[in-house]
Amino acid sequence: APTRCLMFDSWFDEYRGAVCLVQVVDGTIGVDDSVRAAHSGKRYTVSEVGLCTPRRFPVDRLLPGSVGYVIAGMKTTREAVVGDTLMAVAAYDAGIPPLPGFEVAKPMVFASVYPVDTGDFDELNRAVEKLVLNDASVTVQRESGASLGSGLRCGFLGLLHMEVFLQRLQDEFYTSVVTTAPTVPYTVRLRKPRNPSKKEAEAMAAAEAAGQDPLILRCENPSEFPPAVEVEAYYE
């Protein structure tokens, strides 16, 4: 059977990149094998496989049913998406489907993080970048506020996820931050303009061509909300 491995966890090694924990469902996987990640389609060459005992114990190949680790030159854990399938290149190119059940993790809680001292933003940014290497489900976007200065808009899977991330930021990097109240994304349905301008008409046509509803807007930040007179309905 062609090689298919389920990735269920990963961590970042400073010298080797992302270390993926996998379950070998079909086939085998070993050093110098060429594989692809089914979700991204990126190609990798396996440099090491092994078992966790709990230390890493390299072996020649992982056999069907084995649970072990794979190092394949992934630079960050964002490439090692939990639930994705590592497949033999030949199987991927032949159109063999990946393992079922994969869904991309979507952040559902958002909060802004600012340094206590506005001059410490670069230090905060470096600390968050290092944490994200081991937690690819966190999304980060730079933003600037009138009162708090430069900060980072972070997306988390939930409130507990946010609390753990912020606690690690303090415990591991000794970074004191100011955190805004968490918010959840809202979907807004806009009223259809009676006499749309040329620019509005072009934007609506482009959205429809892309298979999207031009009147649906997703808002993750209060500053993104349109004027109330333009809104037909709000959905949480």
CATH homologous superfamily caption of the largest domain = Translation factors
Quickly give the structural class.
alpha+beta
**Helix segment count?**
4
CATH architecture title of the largest domain: Beta Barrel
CATH class of the largest domain: Mainly Beta
Number of domains: 3
Strand content: 35-45%
- The string of secondary-structure elements, in order, is EEEEEEEEEEHEHEEHEEHEE
Distance between the termini: 45 Å
What CATH calls the topology of the largest domain is Elongation Factor Tu (Ef-tu), domain 3
Helix content: 10-25%
- What does the main sheet amount to? 8 strands, antiparallel
- Strand segment tally: 17
* Average pLDDT number: 88
Stretches with pLDDT under 50, minimum 5 residues: none
Q: Roughly how many Å is the radius of gyration?
A: 22 Å
Adjacency order of strands in the biggest sheet: 5-4-10-1-2-9-6-7
Shape descriptor reads flat
